[in-house]
Amino acid sequence: MRTTLDWDDLRYALAVAEGGSLAAGAKKLGVSHTTAMRRIAAFEERLGMRLFERLPGGYELTAGGEELIETARGIGVAVTGLERRLAGSDLKISGTVRVTTADTLAASLLPGILAALKSAHPGIGVDLVVSNLFLNLTKREADIAIRPADDPPPGLFGRRLCSIGFAVYGAAMLGIEPQATAEALGGYPWIAPDDSLSMTAVGRWMPTALPEIEIAIQADSLVSACRLAEAGIGLAILPCYLGDGSPALRRLTPPLEAVRTGLWILTHEDLRRTARIRAFMEFVGNELQSQRRLIEGAIDGSRPVE
């Protein structure tokens, strides 16, 4: 019997193969574990062959599965390319924009900006993906990225909005006096980023610049580090726009030039002329640039005005 391949079936198989497990594939597709398992089983039954070996460590492709997935990858590239080109021809300032950003921006500056965007462009809906990973815009994991970066991935279109200043913060209740350098505060307990943040500006700098400090606790998010610092557990290096926004914290150093990084807003080249993408990038980019002094740490918002 002749079997007609369905792209939706291939999409499920591809997600499981790239994730290495049923759970990872289901998460990527935004479906339940049961749905993914049922779809894969039904697909294998229609094909009359097993695509995956079910092993304790995950799903491993069979020889036949390897061949099918290799073809599916090529189809996936073609489909996402077509989707981008079709989306790029949209001239209406309406529709949903999938935006990825870092947790620090989502917890501080962006909510107010997105509220203003809704008033200016009520037809634009926003699907906000908060992640410290640089999602793949080429594969349409997101339409727009707003995030810290020194060198954004090639093939993307956008602009560098400003630099991001980072400084050392501690709970105001601790009564610690500000110092000229982070090293001068080395005798206090610290909150450090864990291995998942090792490639961020803070994660790269701290182990080499402050190798002897006492680590009170590690966190997988700078927002979590901020909350822990507010509780007085230790000092933390935070983006100034986050640390200055906390009444419980005090900025203890000037911005650390070695940690400074760029803030970018980016999209895929094929989407740059889409009306809603262009409107979003222009509005949000301009709003962020209007807060440049705060983002760069040029003003110390952690201290009351005297």
Automatic annotation (TrEMBL):
<dbReference type="Pfam" id="PF00126">
    <property type="entry name" value="HTH_1"/>
</dbReference>
<dbReference type="InterPro" id="IPR058163">
    <property type="entry name" value="LysR-type_TF_proteobact-type"/>
</dbReference>
<dbReference type="InterPro" id="IPR000847">
    <property type="entry name" value="LysR_HTH_N"/>
</dbReference>
<dbReference type="GO" id="GO:0006351">
    <property type="term" value="P:DNA-templated transcription"/>
</dbReference>
<comment type="similarity">
    <text>Belongs to the LysR transcriptional regulatory family.</text>
</comment>
<keyword id="KW-0805">Transcription regulation</keyword>
<dbReference type="GO" id="GO:0043565">
    <property type="term" value="F:sequence-specific DNA binding"/>
</dbReference>
<dbReference type="InterPro" id="IPR036390">
    <property type="entry name" value="WH_DNA-bd_sf"/>
</dbReference>
<protein>
    <submittedName>
        <fullName>ModE molybdate transport repressor domain-containing protein</fullName>
    </submittedName>
</protein>
<keyword id="KW-0804">Transcription</keyword>
<dbReference type="InterPro" id="IPR005119">
    <property type="entry name" value="LysR_subst-bd"/>
</dbReference>
<dbReference type="GO" id="GO:0003700">
    <property type="term" value="F:DNA-binding transcription factor activity"/>
</dbReference>
<dbReference type="InterPro" id="IPR036388">
    <property type="entry name" value="WH-like_DNA-bd_sf"/>
</dbReference>
<feature type="domain" description="HTH lysR-type">
    <location>
        <begin position="5"/>
        <end position="62"/>
    </location>
</feature>
<dbReference type="Pfam" id="PF03466">
    <property type="entry name" value="LysR_substrate"/>
</dbReference>
<keyword id="KW-0238">DNA-binding</keyword>
